[in-house]
Amino acid sequence: MTRVRDLSEDQILDRIVPLLPRGGATLLGPGDDAAVLAAPDGRFVVSTDVLVEDRHFRTRWSTGYDVGRRAAAQNLADVAAMGARPTALVTSLVVPGDTELDWVVGLAKGLADGCAPVGAGAVGGDLAGGPCLVVAITVHGDLEGRAPVLRSGARPGDVVAHAGVRGWSAAGLALLESGLVPAPVDAPTTGVPLEVADGVVLEDVWHRLVAAHLRPDPPLAAGVAAAQAGATAMLDLSDGLLRDAARVARASGVRLDLDPDAFAADRAELRPVARAVAAATGLGEPGWGPTPADVDRLADTWVWAGGEDHGLLATFPAGTVLPAPWTAVGRVVEAGETAPAAAVTVGGHAPAVSPGWDHFRA
Amino acid sequence: MTRVRDLSEDQILDRIVPLLPRGGATLLGPGDDAAVLAAPDGRFVVSTDVLVEDRHFRTRWSTGYDVGRRAAAQNLADVAAMGARPTALVTSLVVPGDTELDWVVGLAKGLADGCAPVGAGAVGGDLAGGPCLVVAITVHGDLEGRAPVLRSGARPGDVVAHAGVRGWSAAGLALLESGLVPAPVDAPTTGVPLEVADGVVLEDVWHRLVAAHLRPDPPLAAGVAAAQAGATAMLDLSDGLLRDAARVARASGVRLDLDPDAFAADRAELRPVARAVAAATGLGEPGWGPTPADVDRLADTWVWAGGEDHGLLATFPAGTVLPAPWTAVGRVVEAGETAPAAAVTVGGHAPAVSPGWDHFRA
């Protein structure tokens, strides 16, 4: 088994660089002091995001490929959220010397597969040793002559719309942390079988939710589609729907009122999973187990406050025909109209769950 | 004393973002999903570099400000080495929770001061917790209508030229590692006074060389000047003169023959420092101490193989009037002309010291 400490930086790069996609906007790829990218409209968008081992992923659950896919996806989503078309990314990678070379090769493949749907390139990087895995990506995009869609453009009367999944990543993480596994009830296993209803083991649910956590698949094309349809504000949902929606509300000086009915299907779908997780993790009073209210609260927390789905939230002028896959989930109202302190309300009321995720404190 | 774990990510950003320069090419600064930068000629250059605590810097020697200055400098040098004008950078920062907020604030100030000489902006970033400090920067630049200056353009007959300092960073690091300090001989101190000649303590030498290591000051304007003067190849010297010169030679299919006389002043200047470091660190035979040959070899190693000076190396057509601060240091010859195996020779011979620095193995 080859470990990275057995190779020089150049030898490692020789294994990685051929795996990386060039991308249509790349005028000069890896190998010089810098890459050269096209910016046909005379501007480009740029964003950076970092993933840290044991903060954002665990090697016990995530392969190198998973981390590459996830790192690409969450960065590309930031570009999409500006209404731009992703063009290329660069990667700074910190790896402990005892990391298997295959992990790093898998990361490169994951980056490549993450970039493929939008034709983005992976045009350069840096590699260093360190005490834990760190993947820092900077991504670029082309506005194609359009104005960037900011967080600050939402206006009272606009429709609030969403694209992507809701709560899946948080539910997938909860499944991994619970030890529930998608095995038949009577099979030998090191975990607890996931049985969500009357003896039915929902293997497909487990795989779908865990995959959503390990390899999120943001609706990248929805960003450009929203910009073309006249979106007034947009952002990537990385820290939870309520927390991120509040960012749009504050930047725009408005309130976002979300429609609870728009999320009913998500909550219903995740409730059996929440019941299994709650039971497996000992939620509720000792000796009694979780109540239906405990289960509801857990499912709601995933939907409203779960981070890292990397869906997109946008606002559109009233009457806009929403392009697929956007669906209406609420409306923009005057700040202070009914609930002065709240930037985000649900059916006119303060949200029942607390807003998610502070990346730094986590 | 405030530590970063006492604050949320947003609270930390509120302290940092106001310190960062906007930059002349910035159309939209920090605060949205991505920044928007101008690329007036329809292209931009991009490069990324990562600094890891205890690999690239030690908090015992480097303040946050030092690390910020250094991170900015080495990234901006990569843009300069393409013949581009640096426009803006983004930063992904990993910080342990017990890091003092002042360290992070210092880093932001160092980034700002590092960007100031070229008017570059600091337009965005990401912040995460982790087990050690990691500073990953991605930098962008404007080619202003010129072709990028690659490593592959050197042609036999070209002049090899250099801009910047040579060996200072390595000598500064050696001074720090040696425990030599710039105190008067008879003052109380925890280190060994640096006395380089007949009782004279060269305090200014210590400060200059240590500063060159902690806060390298690359000749950033020399990159654009070289491109305007018709440089055929160029690169940033981060891994040592011999190792980096070999990269130009291999990429161009030529040999670079360096003129030892061009480096005589550097070697002479660093030799007293090498003597002091050699004596303080026990170089040479036990009981005998370092010989003049040991001292010469140490000084030569700093000059020829010392990394992280971030000077620039370029080749120019013969007869080019070199713009300041470039000086001729050799010539480009046919590969295989006299020394088939060597990509770089010194006065026609294989170098006497081994080429520096493999960042990954270090």
Automatic annotation (TrEMBL), chains A, B:
GO molecular-function terms, A-Z: ATP binding; magnesium ion binding; thiamine-phosphate kinase activity
Positions annotated to bind Mg(2+) 4: 33, 47, 78
Residues binding Mg(2+) 1, per UniProt: 48-49, 126
Pathway named in the protein's UniProt entry: Cofactor biosynthesis; thiamine diphosphate biosynthesis; thiamine diphosphate from thiamine phosphate: step 1/1
Binding site for Mg(2+) 3: 33, 78, 236
EC number annotated for this UniProt entry: 2.7.4.16
NCBIfam families in the record: PRK05731.1-4, thiL
Record protein name field: Thiamine-monophosphate kinase
Source organism (scientific name): Promicromonospora citrea
